[in-house]
Amino acid sequence: MFYTASMKNKALKSELSSIKAKVRANIEAR
């Protein structure tokens, strides 16, 4: 599969945001 740089950036950003959301949820759960 061929990905453009912008698509890679979008994927990385969405991955980072999902990780941040998980971390935030873990902190709030305590």
What does this protein look like?
- There is one protein chain.
- With 30 residues, the protein is mostly helical.
- It has one domain (1-30).
- Helix content is 83%, strand content 0%.
- The chain has one helix and no strands.
- The chain has one helix at residues 5-29.
- The mean pLDDT is 89.
Brief summary:
With 30 residues, the chain is mainly alpha-helical.
Number-wise, the strands total 0
- SSE arrangement, N to C: H
Number of helices: 1
CA-CA gap between termini: 41 Å
Helix-strand makeup class: mainly alpha
Helix content: over 70%
Over the alpha carbons, how many angstroms does the gyration radius reach? 13 Å
Q: What are the salient characteristics of this protein?
A:
83% helix, rod-shaped, single chain, 30 residues, 1 helix, mainly alpha
